[in-house]
Amino acid sequence: MLEDNGIYKLKRYFALALDPIHVGTGGYRIGRVDNTIVREPATGVPKIPGTTIEGCCRSYAYLKSKEDGRNINTYCAKGKPKSETEQPCGSCEICITFGYARKDKSMQALALFSDARILFFPVATMIGPVWITCPMVLKDAGVKLNNDENKLEKLEGGFLKANDLTLPMDDDKKVYLNFGWLLLKGKDENINPMQWKYKENREYKSLSDIIPKDILNKIIIVPDELFSTIVNSNLEVRTSIAIDPETGTVEERALFTYEAIPRGTVFWFDVIYQNPKNFQLNEWNTELIIKTVEDGLKLFEFLGVGGMGSRGFGRLKVIGEFLPFDKYLEALEKRLEILRKKHKNDKIQAICNYLKNIKSEYTNWIEKIEEIINKFCR
Question: What is the pLDDT, as a whole number, of residue 27?
Fold first, then answer.
């Protein structure tokens, strides 16, 4: 983990869309659909903004803290005051992790979120669903292709396929495949996504330990210039109407369409955790910040992200290497040591009450939790 004299720690997370994801741009547009989704300005590729991820994560981390019995007020979840008496406390894990603004002071967030960008995108083809990506996307995501880098220069409008895919072949011995309406011919060369690694800080880790193997075995690399076209041509588009509650029939002129990133899409995003010691927050450490963020990220799978949640949209399963619970307990114990030296008994008691509440959730760590409680609360 991060050393005390470090500046930051970068953690890379991946996410799998369990439902279509709709993060709208607001208002209506004249075009293929009425309600469009957020895209990268330069490439036109859809994304989930970091502000959306941060906002949902803050809200869900607050709900998890309340469930665990911590005394955190609503204004800590909002991060801004309503009046002189109704404002964030500025000292809880929600305020410290996500930042806050009080009438008398404010502080930036210690957890900085990037946009969630598409890594693998599902497309319907004549052989069933495949997941496409491109060299630019792989490079931006820090994915190392081992000995396959040289093959990427030979795409020339074609594609490269994963080893496990068997594709039809034309008279020139070239494989071909349709990506929606677009038909491409590929090289007679394969790639092995099961051996790919991704870079997190200065370490490379196996992608196959994170991404489901059913997806990695169906990867196809297409040229950079075609990636955006294929993605935008294969977004999910739905049509909705409004029902008149008095008659139970469709209201006139109430039909509208909206688009979404389809389920099965794999995203990646970074969270940079700044070292609290550099902000004179000596009782805090990076592991405590990571735990707060990851408590929120784990709820994306159930509570979702973006709009249209009541229409079957939004669930996003964040997958990655989460902080081990023993590392968190170790960091919490260090904080309690500092609090005891400063004679902050009220904070110590609040943490002990929290530990008592979570014993039923972490049954494998009951002995360690009770050891900490006995050490600081008796």
Answer: 62
Please answer whether residues 127 and 165 qualify as being in contact, where contact means their C-beta atoms are separated by less than 8 angstroms.
yes
In sequence order, the 6+-apart residues with CB closer than 8 A to the CB of 26 are: none
CATH 3.30.70 location in the chain:
1-22+50-114+261-323
CB atoms within 10 A of CB 327: 13
196 CB contacts (<8 Å, ≥6 apart)?
143, 144, 145, 146, 206, 207, 208, 216
Which fold is adopted by the domain 1-22+50-114+261-323?
A: Alpha-Beta Plaits (3.30.70)
Q: How far is Cα 27 from Cα 42, in angstroms, rounded to an integer?
A: 21
| pTM across the whole model | 0.90
- Under the banding of pLDDT at 50, 70 and 90, the label for residue 90 is confident
Residue with tokens 């075609």: 226
Q: Where are the beta strands (DSSP E) in the chain?
A: 8-17, 47-48, 100-101, 106-107, 111-113, 116-125, 128-133, 143-144, 160-162, 176-179, 182-185, 190-191, 197-200, 203-206, 219-221, 236-240, 256-260, 266-274, 316-319
Cα–Cα distance measured from residue 67 to residue 56, given in angstroms and rounded to the nearest whole number: 16
The CA–CA distances, whole Å, from 138 to 41, 59, 74, 135 equal 19, 31, 40, 5
pLDDT given at position 304 = 93
Q: Where would I find the H helices in the chain? A: 50-67, 74-78, 93-98, 135-140, 213-216, 224-233, 286-297, 300-303, 325-341, 345-358, 366-376
Q: Give the residue-averaged pLDDT of 78-85.
A: 82
